[in-house]
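Quick entry between incubations.
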Amino acid sequence: MKQKEYQKDDTIGAINRHKILAAAEVEFALHGFAGTRVQHIADRAQLPKTNVLYYFKSKEGLYLALLEDILSLWNGEFDHATVDDDPAIVLANYIADKMEISRTRPDASKIFALEIINGAPNLSGFFKDQHASWMKARVQVIEQWIEHDKLSALDPHYLLFNIWATCQHYADFAIQITELRGKPMDENDFKDATNNLVALILKGCGLAVPDTFITTKTKN
Amino acid sequence: MKQKEYQKDDTIGAINRHKILAAAEVEFALHGFAGTRVQHIADRAQLPKTNVLYYFKSKEGLYLALLEDILSLWNGEFDHATVDDDPAIVLANYIADKMEISRTRPDASKIFALEIINGAPNLSGFFKDQHASWMKARVQVIEQWIEHDKLSALDPHYLLFNIWATCQHYADFAIQITELRGKPMDENDFKDATNNLVALILKGCGLAVPDTFITTKTKN
DNA sequence: CAAAAACTAGACCATTTGGTCAAGGGTTGG
DNA sequence: CCAACCCTTGACCAAATGGTCTAGTTTTTG
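Done. Structure below.
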């Protein structure tokens, strides 16, 4: 973070750091922090182990750097929504965003999940505070929507939890999903899943589903 | 499994095995398989480490025994539902069951989640097959409900995934939830969350919410 | 072009940790 | 009461692994 600002992206160091982070993301997602071997990260990045330790002081240092990268994904459109916005549009887009992250960055999602399940031992107080205040602000907006009868009465906390839960699930439990569907989810399946989920949640909140999120299938 | 059938529950061996399993559940949930120390399990069970290895041949043996216990939780009411049942009742009860497991056995839920996230390396083919055929049967019932216009059209797979996702979330992400709500969820909070979730999903499916799942609050 | 800085890499080490062993203590059934 | 079995326990070990050291190579910079 500190160096990256002024550092070019095409120096040998930057390239290697990037390769290592990418390899680490796969390994940590698959084996957790304790179960991951520095050697395996090195192998995957096609570098000697010593190099990994050279660029990142330690296994923990690498993990923390990765985690910081991952947390930066957790921002989006919804962050700036106000009462005046249409809840149907805002929520649908929020869900679509989250689903898109699950599709394109499943390992990031898994690492975050592992971190939380294990008691969030590496999430900084700063992140937690930031997250808590984000939550508070979003809850207020949703409550205002409810007051203005734009949304049926429900606890905004649970609504948000349920959205996160469902979206994350498509990344974290991808193996199970693949097993049960008989095939992995491709981009189209994700679109279907997103539209299904948007419909479920929006209708569940008493909202109409925006046209853009209605699947037009031959199947009636 | 093999011995338990004829073994009494009050022998010294059975008691210790039970203590060890309980301790292991906490430790594995908190640190994952690789991150868990046999010594810590022993400490928590208040037994010497050698005892743990005496009762269970190895760390992996203990983990597998625990996992088997946990998987037995994954059965419930919905297993026997048919077209003739009321989908609103069946689904609401299914959600309530799952939420109850999240409340009472959060560590079991976490271990299962860790297992899936890490690629399900220890889930037997038997379990997977069983699970897949369970899924197929449930999907059929839901499709029949849809054909009979008891439910709005949606993909049954995604509906089930979304239910699992939300229910599991209250166990797996309990730390985050506590952080964001400012306090841990007690039994009453779980009841609220359950009713919120039932309302969201049932309304999302075009179903009326059974009376038993409507929270009567002073808050309008 | 020379020197400093960045990078590569094999050899090596200290520690941690799952697991073994042998010896002894309790319990139970005949 | 004794013998077989179950249980307890400290001492110990081999393997794995994160990390260091040193030495050399390449790249950058003045």
